[in-house]
Amino acid sequence: MSTIIKPIVTEKVTRQTELSNRYGFVVSKKSNKVEIKKAVEAAYGVTVVGVNTMNVRPNRSVKYTKSGMISAKTNAFKKAIVEVKEGDTIDFYNNI
Length: 96
Description:
Blueprint (H helix, E strand, L loop, with lengths): L3 E5 L2 H10 L1 E6 L5 H12 L3 E9 L3 E6 L2 E6 L3 E8 L12
Antiparallel strand pairs: 1-2, 2-6, 3-6, 4-5
């Protein structure tokens, strides 16, 4: 089972990266903070200072169309905000 699914690259997380050296990842729902810390250190070769996790709920929406009412929802996922040691950086774009 892979702990880290993908990095989060949004404006808000990029701002946190520039200001406070924090990076965002989508992680497995069953992983805990210790597993996330070990996975990030092994994958990117940095020293992790702290890990914050949150479960993101699915967004539900209702659309009114000609054929009737359509309800939809996004998937729920677990997000981890990882703070790395001062001076360490993670480069997501080096393999492009």
